[in-house]
Design goal:
Elements: H1 21-53, H2 55-74, H3 77-88, H4 92-126, H5 136-145, H6 150-158, E1 161-166, H7 176-194, H8 199-217, H9 229-259, E2 275-276, H10 290-318, H11 330-338, H12 350-369, H13 387-403, H14 407-410, H15 413-424, E3 430-431, E4 433-436, H16 437-451, H17 462-474, H18 488-507, E5 514-518, H19 523-535, E6 548-553, H20 556-571, H21 573-581, E7 585-591, H22 592-599, H23 601-622, E8 625-631, H24 643-648, E9 658-663, H25 666-672, H26 675-695, H27 704-725, H28 731-738, H29 741-744, H30 767-776, H31 787-797, H32 802-812, H33 814-828, H34 832-839, H35 845-870, H36 880-908, H37 914-931
Parallel strand pairs: 1-2, 1-9, 2-3, 4-5, 5-6, 6-7, 7-8, 8-9
Helix pairs in contact: 1-2, 1-4, 1-8, 2-3, 2-36, 3-36, 4-7, 4-36, 4-37, 5-26, 7-8, 9-10, 9-15, 9-26, 10-12, 10-15, 10-18, 11-12, 12-13, 13-15, 16-19, 17-19, 20-23, 22-23, 22-30, 23-27, 27-31, 31-35, 32-33, 33-35, 36-37
């Protein structure tokens, strides 16, 4: 799981390499409490199943559980046959009930594990143990030890940007209704953990837990209808309520306190900013239109303004300071005089009068934006013309409190609100626009053809296209003809871009700061979007851009070419002017998912690393600041894995204080549903950025022989992976038959189609369902295939260096260590025995046996070499907590996989019972919950 603070990927919390005996005791106590909580939730779930479904179903579930545990613990073949017999002899309706029970156990175990990590973090902090390496406190401490002053660190954060970007990529199979109930359960567990409860309170807590579990049991696990884009927007906004609106300001304020007061009174810059693609990502999603973009921005504005209004109401209740007991500044008095009148009872309470004035103006602002607000009515007041004006009024209140002896009051809700306004503005989150370069290409071609027939843009060479586009950038006249009738695609693109320009005028330029061009393959791809943005006024003919142009390089070939493309773009005076108008900063996005599907896990990781090195060199040559945007998925097969290690594994100069990272699918809910877990994940990103920017450059670059060896390993792994996936006759047939790829499309988990076309070619398949499918059948193939054969061949060619050299790479090079650590995790979740059941779904026996034998051999080979290089006797040997968690989950996952295979056979045999498909969908949900990173 990509959530760095989940029990599934937890690293030791102490920065010490050898845990102290005190840490061992605390960890042991926490683990004992975890087991107790899992037993508690399991017992409540069991009681619920018995009450709702009867003793027979409960007894059957329990028998299946016990047999599965025996099979895994003792490798008892008889237990496996017993398990299969119990599962195969059931009616479809009865099997669905069994599947629901095992699925819910995985969900409940996840809750308990997340709470356990919170408990361990708290225990270490309270016990005064070594500061965790992944916390801001620990990183700041190391920076101070390295000689950085508080002022230097503040200056660093002035120019920093750390931005998690939420996407709607469809890998979250849970409904918000179930997530909300799971949050209630987490809160009740936390209450038991942190409160000294009486017997009556404990009984009440127990009853509430039972009520929540029963509600979950009686709630549909899956959506019955397909999500719209605005449904996805609404779901994404939930995480602002859960975590971001309160925890992000809190984190920044805590860091400000740790750095100490600035001698000039300057506050710490709000370098943590939220981003989003939900409602702005048009690549492959025809349902993201201009109206959807407008609705998205409106919903974001409504959410943040209502939060501010609620906080102001609470602040009004708190600031009951009386005029005869406190003084106020002249500027506060002036603010009061501009405020509408309040009740006579509040006439001698100046701060309440001032807050009422701010509240009234913000209410009026909401009216201008046309958003719905709750709470009490405000007085007659002028709306705020900008978010800076709102912040200015709050600052007046803050200064008056501080200057008149109420500093500690100013540090409460008012401080958090001021920080929130600084972080979220009136737009809540910066929304990226994204579209495929091929769409821009066709749009530009149609525009040129309408005003200059015979231009034949699509037939022109790259150089000819660039020359034509550069001329157009200089031209003040519009390329869009009011007399022309454009096709649906072109009209839709222009409508979206016009809406973006309107949004800039309405909400401020930070509402849409980036336009991303996916599948960027040349300089013309950047110039095409530049011309289109010029047509709607977001770029002017003088070379001033109000939006960042961001190329997205996705395939292996594009990653290899990206430095050359950016070198040519930055050498063009016309493009360089656009970059200079954006402060001399150019963002480049790197795609992890498509490069992995294209070239395999090893080669994708290596080509991304090399691309970053090349980009750093190009940008240094042009004296342009580089900001990388990492398009990481949730699973290792899509670039996922712990964020802290991923950031630190970047080559020198690739971070430079600024980084954006996508947060996708089920990873969003696993990281940011629980507010404390969410704050820790935000902190991890910020700490890693600080570490990589200030401390990592002090480390030496990888030795040339490391780079050369990795180049050879990558080439060998690439040949192995491509040889299987793209060059083996019948592999497509094997994939479609042996995975749930067809059935995944029936899940209502996203608005975007699963494939770019109706063809069955792997090239046309999106990376998300590709990885999702391999996870469901427990092969996890995109996260490891090609590694074993590559190492075998490399060692054979390099007998003088061999295994000792690879072990040195693992010890000394963070990139190689992260690569193997992620493989270790993903292979630990795989099961070749379970995967063999899915292989049986392939009708052609010869094809099935041939391909599965290759996969099995590579799986064994990869595990063998991984263990030798990492010097482990078993997978996850260096991470016993994660190993234990996964091992304990297998007995609950395997029955789900077994049932899924049987349901797939029935469904594909045209069984018309609707519960068959429903059963498949529920098993997908349960397996995803058990693995915790599905796509």
């Amino acid at each position: 799981m990509a959530s760095d603070v989940s029990a599934f990927e937890r690293k030791p919390l102490s920065s010490s390499s050898e845990p102290s005996s005190r840490e061992d005791v605390l960890s042991s106590q926490a683990d004992a409490q975890l087991r107790a909580e899992i037993r508690l939730l399991g017992r409540i779930l069991g009681d619920t199943v018995r009450d709702q479904e009867g003793d027979d179903v409960f007894d059957l579930v329990e028998s299946i559980r016990q047999a599965s545990i025996r099979f895994h613990r003792d490798e008892d073949i008889g237990a496996r046959h017993e398990l299969e017999a119990m599962l195969d002899g059931r009616s479809i309706a009865e099997t669905v009930r069994i599947v629901r029970a095992f699925s819910y156990f995985s969900h409940l175990a996840n809750i308990a594990e997340d709470q356990n990590h919170i408990r361990q973090t708290r225990n270490q902090s309270g016990a005064g143990l070594a500061t965790a390496a992944t916390t801001l406190a620990g990183t700041v401490e190391r920076a101070r030890e390295a000689g950085f002053s508080a002022k230097q660190l503040r200056d660093f954060f002035d120019g920093a940007l750390v931005s998690p970007v939420l996407t709607a990529h469809p890998t979250e199979v849970r409904r918000k209704s179930t997530i909300d109930r799971e949050m209630d359960i987490a809160a009740l567990l936390e209450e038991r953990d942190r409160t000294q409860m009486t017997a009556e309170e404990l009984a009440d807590n127990d009853e509430q837990l039972r009520r929540c579990v029963l509600t979950l049991w009686q709630t549909n696990l899956l959506r019955r209808t397909k999500l719209t884009v605005l449904d996805e927007v609404q779901n994404g906004l939930s995480f602002y309520d859960y975590t971001f609106l309160k925890q992000l300001p809190r984190l920044l304020n805590l860091l400000e306190d740790r750095l100490g007061a600035d001698e000039d009174g300057k506050e710490l810059a709000s370098f943590l900013k939220m981003g989003s693609w939900i409602g702005g990502d048009r690549d492959g999603n025809p349902f993201v239109t201009a109206d959807v973009l407008r609705g998205t921005l409106q919903m974001q504005c409504e959410r943040v303004l209502n939060f501010y209004l609620q906080e102001l109401q609470k602040l009004y209740g708190e600031l009951s300071l009386a005029v005869d007991l406190v003084d106020v500044t002249e500027e506060l008095q002036a603010l009061i005089e501009r405020s509408p009148s309040v009740s006579a009872h509040r006439g001698r309470e100046p701060y309440r009068r001032a807050v009422h004035g701010v509240y009234s103006r913000l209410k009026a602002t909401a009216g201008v934006f046309g958003v719905r607000t709750g709470g009490r009515a405000g007085g007659e007041a002028a709306p705020y013309e900008s978010v800076e004006a709102l912040r200015g009024d709050l600052d007046i209140i803050n200064r008056s409190l501080i200057e008149n002896g109420s500093h500690v009051i100013a540090r409460g809700r008012l401080r958090r609100l001021r920080r929130a306004v600084d972080c979220f503005g009136f737009h809540l989150a910066s929304l990226d626009l994204r579209q495929n370069s091929a769409v821009h290409e066709r749009t530009i071609a149609e525009l040129f053809e309408a005003v200059a027939p015979g231009t034949n843009y699509l037939d022109r060479s790259e150089d000819e296209r660039c020359a034509l586009l550069v001329r157009e950038l200089h031209t003040a006249r519009s390329l869009i003809s009011p007399f022309a009738s454009y096709g649906e695609e072109t009209s839709g693109e222009l409508a979206v871009l016009r809406m973006a320009a309107e949004a800039h005028a309405r909400f401020g330029r930070q509402c849409i700061p980036q336009s991303i061009v996916s599948m960027s393959e040349g300089v013309s791809d950047l110039l095409e979007i530049a011309v289109l943005l010029k047509e709607v006024g977001l770029i002017d003919p003088n070379g001033v851009s109000h939006i960042n142009l961001v190329p997205l390089f996705e395939t292996i070939e594009d990653l290899r070419n990206c430095a050359g493309i950016m070198d040519r773009a930055l050498s063009l005076p016309e493009y360089r002017r656009l970059v200079d108008s954006r402060g001399g900063l150019q963002e480049v996005m790197l795609g992890y998912s498509d490069s992995n599907k294209d070239g395999g896990f090893v080669t994708s990781g290596w080509e991304l690393y090399k691309a970053e090195i090349s980009l750093v060199e190009v940008f240094e040559k042009h004296r342009v600041r580089l900001r990388l945007f990492h398009g990481r998925g949730g699973s290792v097969g899509r670039g996922g894995g712990p964020s802290y290690e991923a950031v630190l594994a970047q080559p020198g100069g690739a971070v430079q204080g600024q980084i954006r990272i996508t947060e996708q699918g089920e990873i969003i809910s696993s990281k940011y549903t629980n507010p404390e877990v969410g704050r820790q994940n935000l902190e991890i990103l910020a700490a890693a950025t600080l570490e990589a920017s200030l401390l990592q450059p002090q480390h030496s670059a990888p030795r040339q022989e490391y780079l050369a060896a990795m180049e050879e390993l990558s080439a060998l792994a690439f040949a192995s992976y491509r040889g299987l996936v793209y060059e083996t006759e019948g592999f497509e047939e094997y994939f479609w038959a042996s995975t749930v790829i067809n059935e995944i499309s029936t899940l209502n988990i996203g608005s975007r189609p699963a494939s770019r076309s109706k063809a069955r070619r792997i090239e046309n398949l999106r990376a998300i369902p590709w990885v999702f499918s391999w996870a469901q059948c427990r092969l996890m193939l995109p996260g490891w295939y090609g590694f074993g054969s590559a190492v075998s061949e490399w060692v054979g060619k390099n007998p003088d260096r061999g295994l000792p050299f690879l072990r040195e790479l693992y010890r000394e090079w963070p990139f190689f260590r992260m690569l193997l650590s992620n493989m270790d995790m993903v292979l630990s979740k795989s099961s070749i025995a379970v995967a063999s059941r899915y292989a049986e779904l392939v009708p052609d026996k010869t094809l099935r046996d041939t391909i599965f034998l290759r996969i099995r051999t590579e799986w064994q080979n990869s595990i063998g070499w991984l263990l030798k290089i990492m010097e482990q006797d078993r997978l996850l040997g260096h991470n016993p907590l994660l190993e234990r968690s996964i091992r304990h989950r297998f007995p609950y996952l395997d029955p789900l996989n077994h049932v899924q295979v049987e349901f797939l056979k029935a469904y594909r045999a045209k069984n018309e019972d609707p519960q068959v498909l429903r059963g498949i969908q529920i098993t997908i949900n349960g397996i995803s919950a058990g693995l915790r990173n599905s796509g």
